[in-house]
Every structure is written in C-alpha cells, then in structure tokens.
Specification:
Layout: H1 2-24, H2 45-65, H3 68-79, H4 88-102, E1 106-112, E2 123-128, E3 139-140, H5 144-150, E4 155-156, E5 161-162, E6 170-179, E7 185-194
Antiparallel strand pairs: 1-2, 1-7, 2-3, 4-6, 5-6, 6-7
C-alpha cells in the first residue's frame, strides 16, 4: 500500500510539473531531430574520390557493352530462357573479363522488373560476371542509383557496404546505362569495387553503427 501510495504521489507531482511547463511554454522543450539529407552533408575528399573512381569504372565498361552486347541483352530478355539462352555463357565471359581486368569484386547487368515503376520496384540480374554468380532473375531491392542509371546518368551508391561478416572488407557500388545498337538503354551495369579507404570513414559505411543513413 505505501509503495503504491508513493507512486501515486510521484505521478501526481510529475503531472503538475509537466502541466506547468506546458502552460508556461517552456523554452527547454526538446525539438524533434531533423533528418540528415545528402545535400546537407559535406562528402570528404577521400570518400568522393572512391565514388568517382567506381562510377568511372561503371561508365567505362558500360560503354563497352553498347551495341552488340546490348542487342544480346534484348535477345536474352525476349527469349525468356534465362541462363539457358544460347549466348549466355559468352555474355558472362565478357563481364568476367571486365571484372578481372578492373580488379572489381563483382560486375553484373541489371534490368527493371517493372518498366512502369523504375522509381520504386526492384531490378533483376540478367548476367552476373562473378565467380559465384547470382542466378538470372535474382531481384535486387530498389535503390535510387538504379533509377538514376536507368534514366541515363552514371551513379554511385550513397555508401559503402561490407562484403564479409567482420565488416572489414568494404565495397562501393556504382551503376551506368548501356545501350543496344539503336541507342536505347537496355540495362545498367553494376560494379562493386573494393573500398578499404572507407574504414577510416565509418559514417559512410552502411554496415557500421556510425552510418549517416544517407540513402537518397
């Protein structure tokens, strides 16, 4: 009984104090924290250099896909045969060669799962030039850089990510459009490149507790 009575008194006292503060329009009331936006954050030179390097690689190799490889991408999609498509192995061999030449961890082609909603729906793997490739049709959750690249502008991810459980093997990803022989964008090329520099900037690593949470 006494313990309960003390709690009631404490509650009533606290209620009176809160009412007083509210009535007086206390200037000490806490404001809700403002969301951090990319425009409000200065990107360190070292981080920007990583982003620019990976974006440059994505753009460089995407341009190599323009024309014949882009036409093959269209034929692959139209065939609906996935990895059983007759030229699939040759297409993968091209991306494998780019990965080996560049030193990237992964290089892969993506295509929208919904052409009417490229601003919100996942993209899917068509060809993955990796040692342990994701299967044809594997969906990657939508990220804004997919949309940007699909609309014609090479774009980097907003942060690095860890390629290992320990969180020490960091990558940065970037994407660029590639075209068929008629100049139509028929896919985006993704490049995941090692970014050990970001170990010194954990706020730019989405797998770090210190991540700045900038995604757009």
């Amino acid at each position: 009984m006494k313990k309960r009575a003390k709690l009631i008194v404490a509650f009533l006292t606290l209620s009176l104090v809160m009412a007083c503060l509210a009535g007086c329009g206390s200037s000490n009331s806490e404001e809700e924290p403002k969301e951090t936006t990319a425009a409000a954050v200065t990107v360190p030179e070292e981080v920007q250099a990583v982003k620019d390097k990976v974006t440059g690689l994505a753009e460089k190799y995407a341009k190599k896909l323009d024309g014949d490889w882009g036409d093959q991408q269209v034929a692959l999609l139209e065939s609906k045969e996935g990895a059983k498509y007759k030229d699939y192995k040759d297409m993968k061999a091209v991306l494998d060669s780019y990965r080996e030449e560049s030193g990237a961890y992964y290089i892969y082609a993506l295509y929208p799962t919904d052409l009417e909603n490229v601003d919100s729906k996942p993209f899917m793997i068509t060809v993955d030039g990796s040692e342990d490739p994701d299967p044809y049709g594997e969906e990657y959750e939508w990220e804004i850089q997919f949309q940007e690249a699909w609309k014609g502008t090479p774009a980097a991810a907003r942060s690095a990510w860890a390629d290992d459980e320990e969180g020490k093997d960091l990558c940065w990803s970037a994407f660029a459009p590639f075209h068929d022989s008629e100049g139509n964008i028929v896919g985006i090329l993704g490049v995941d490149y090692p970014a050990p520099e970001i170990l010194d900037f954990p706020e730019w690593n989405r797998d770090s507790d210190q991540w700045n949470k900038i995604e757009e």
